[in-house]
Amino acid sequence: MPKVTVRYWAAAKAAAGVAEEPYEAVTLAEALAGVRERHPGDLERVLRRCSFLVDGDPVGTRGHETVRLADGGTVEVLPPFAGG
Q1: Which of 1, 49, 54, 56 is 20 to 30 A removed from 62 (C-alpha atoms)?
Q2: Which neighbouring-strand residues pair with 3?
């Protein structure tokens, strides 16, 4: 099973209480299920508004169950933020 690093930014980092952590998952949906299980509560609310990058590529509107993860890859969790 692929081992990936999930990195949290801004509000997601605050809700998770960590900047990053490892997960084992085949798809983005599986990784996010693990995140929700490990961090019930505020992070769930934040995740609903986040966008995601997998190995630097935007996930966009693709179904999370269709986004496959590579061993050693990275999932970036990006909440909406103001400014520019």
Answers
A1: 1
A2: 24
